[in-house]
């Protein structure tokens, strides 16, 4: 999409361009001829013509114009976005109804003067050394400003003042399940705070006044695992912390989280870390300080390099 300012004193040839064009009259008068006939345009008027259609400008003496050239498919899609309610638009002006034949608009001169800076910004954008994505975004922004000013000319007078019913909001109900905040929230807090106690699915169901089946269904839905497996994972996470951060014996760490048999704790630990708790404690993870050079200038196995 681009714009061009011109001052003409002589008639133009018949020209057809592969773009939709809108000629805005700033001063003077001009007769515009096309295959559909001719129209005399005065300041404040605009003449729109679909791509590939010819027209000829015949100035009365001197005329100053701003012409907008735009990809027709782009312009139609944008205008359809700005004019969503087809029944509020004047007959033949909605982008889905327009056949590309000449359209004549009349705008107040204050509106036209407010639009001229928009056209000039579009015009000089061709000289900007900005990336195409930035130019596309800026073009859409300026088109929105143009549309805001000319919108009344598109709307049917009997409907333009009527507010539209609000469109459906994408969220029409709660996005959370009260069960997660209620029974499941209570259950997970209970297990974390009292993991050292002896739990069974029956006791848990009684505490929450739920059936075993419903409790299992809720746990699986909201935590991804059944209740007793959730308890095991919770115990294992805390057991790992005790192994790593304290000098508790393995047996004491196991009892602290609710496993009376340390072998059970070790078995679950091995499943997660592929080593026993004692091996884990005796073999700290290798680390390298920020100042240590990388041998050979390349990362070793297990290392990773990040950018600045």
TrEMBL record:
For the HTH araC/xylS-type domain, which residue ranges apply?
A: 185-283
* One protein family per Pfam: HTH_18
Segments carrying the region annotation (Disordered) are 280-308
Q: Would the keyword Nuclease turn up in this protein's UniProt record?
A: no
- The species this protein was found in: Microbacterium azadirachtae
Gene Ontology MF terms in the entry = DNA-binding transcription factor activity; sequence-specific DNA binding
Q: Which PROSITE patterns match?
A: HTH_ARAC_FAMILY_2
Checking SMART domains in the record gives: HTH_ARAC
Keyword annotations for this protein, in alphabetical order, are:
DNA-binding, Transcription, Transcription regulation
Q: What is this protein called?
A: AraC-type DNA-binding protein
């Amino acid at each position: 999409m681009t714009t061009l300012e011109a001052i003409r004193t002589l008639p133009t040839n018949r020209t057809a361009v592969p773009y939709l064009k809108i000629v805005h009259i700033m001063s003077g008068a001009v007769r515009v001829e096309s295959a559909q006939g001719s129209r005399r345009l005065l300041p404040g008027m605009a003449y729109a013509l679909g791509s590939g259609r010819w027209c000829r400008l015949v100035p009365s003496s001197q005329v100053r114009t701003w012409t907008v050239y735009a990809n027709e498919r782009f312009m139609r899609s944008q205008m359809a976005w700005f004019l969503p309610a087809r029944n509020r638009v004047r007959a033949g002006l909605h982008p889905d109804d327009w056949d590309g034949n000449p359209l004549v608009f009349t705008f107040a001169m204050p509106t036209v003067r407010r639009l001229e800076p928009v056209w000039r910004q579009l015009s000089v954008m061709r000289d900007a050394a900005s990336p195409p994505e930035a130019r596309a975004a800026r073009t859409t922004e300026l088109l929105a400003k143009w549309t805001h000013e000319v919108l009344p000319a598109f709307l049917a007078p009997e409907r333009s003042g009527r507010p539209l019913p609000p469109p459906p909001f994408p969220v029409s109900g709660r996005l959370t399940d009260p069960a997660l905040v209620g029974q499941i929230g209570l259950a997970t807090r209970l297990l974390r705070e009292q993991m050292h106690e002896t739990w069974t699915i029956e006791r848990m169901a009684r505490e929450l006044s739920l059936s075993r089946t419903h409790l299992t269904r809720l746990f699986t839905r909201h935590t991804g695992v059944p209740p007793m497996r959730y308890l095991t994972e919770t115990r294992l996470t805390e057991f790992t912390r005790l192994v790593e951060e304290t000098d508790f014996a393995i047996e004491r760490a196991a009892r602290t989280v609710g496993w009376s048999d340390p072998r059970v704790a070790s078995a679950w630990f091995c499943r997660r870390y592929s080593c026993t708790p004692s091996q884990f404690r005796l073999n700290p993870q290798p680390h390298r300080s920020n100042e240590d050079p990388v041998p050979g200038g390349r990362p070793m196995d297990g290392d990773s390099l990040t950018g600045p």
